[in-house]
Amino acid sequence: MTMYIGATFKELTRKRVFLVTLILTAIFLVLFAVGVREMAAMDGQNQVSPAARLMNGMVLMVLGLFFAQLLSAFFVLFSAMGTVTGEQESGLLLAVAARPIPRWKLYLAKWLGHAVWVAVYSAALFLAVVWTVHSQAGLPVLAADVLRGFALFIWMPILLLSLAMLGSVYLPMLGNGIFAALLYGFALFCGLVEGISAYGGVNPAVGKFVLLAGLIIPTDSVYRRSLYELLGGADWAGLALSDMGPFSMPSVPSNAFLLYTVGYAAVLLWLGCRAFSRKDL
After folding, report:
1. How many domains does the chain have?
2. d(Cα 163, Cα 179) in Å, to the nearest integer?
3. From what superkingdom does this record's organism come (predicted)?
4. Which residues contact 281 (CB under 8 A, 6 or more apart)?
5. What is the pLDDT of residues 193-239, one digit of tens each?
6. Model-level pTM greater than 0.85?
C-alpha cells in the first residue's frame, strides 16, 4: 500500500494542475488571513461588543471553510477523474494490471493512495482556516469541537473521491470530471436553497427535495454537520448559522445520516471494485 501511496503522489506532482492548485490555495490562505486581520482590527477600533465580535468570528469561520471545501473538491476532481480511463488510454493501466494482483485490490490501493493525499490537503486547509480565525479574530474553539469538525471535513472530499473513482471506471476522463462536478455542484446548490428557504419557513417540498439530493450525493450535508460540530453544536452554531442567508442551516444532518454516508462510501467502493474487475482493458 505504501508503494501505491508514493506512486499516487508522484503522479499528482507530474500534473500542472497540481501546481496551480497549490498556488491558488496559498493565495487564498494569504488573502483570507489578511482579511481576517483587517476585520479584527476594525472591530478593535470601533470597540465592538464581545457578542458582536464573537458573531463576526463565526461568520468568518463559515465563509472561510466554505471556500476551503470548494478547493478540496477541486483537488479531488482533478486528481481522481482519470484514475481508470485516463490510465487506460495512456496504456499505463494495462502494465499495472498485468501483475499477479486481484483487480479489486488494485482498485482499493488506488483509492487509498488518493484518499491519503486528499485527506492531507483537506486537513491542511481546515487547520489553516481554523487557526487563522482563532488567532486573528479571537474566536474561541474547543479541542473536542475542532476534532469532530476536522474528521467530518476530511470525510466530505473522501466521499466525493469514492464517487469520482467509480465514474472513472465507466466514463472518459473529461466526462467523469464534468459528471462529478455537476453532482457536487447540485448538492451545494441544494444546501444554499435550503438556507435561503429558512427565512420563510422550510417548504415541505423543498425539504424533501434537499433530503433526496443529500441521499444521492451527501457531500454538502457532511460539510454542514462539520460546521455545526466545529462551532460548538447546539450551544453556539445556531448563532452563526441561523441568519446568514444562503449559508444558514435550518436543519442539521443526524448521526443516522452520518452512518448512511459510511454505507454509501462502502457501496461505491464495492461497485467500483466489481466494475473494475470486469472491465475490458
Report:
1. 1
2. 10
3. Bacteria
4. 88, 93, 94, 97
5. 777 776 665 566 766 777 788 888 999 889 989 988 888 765 665 55
6. yes
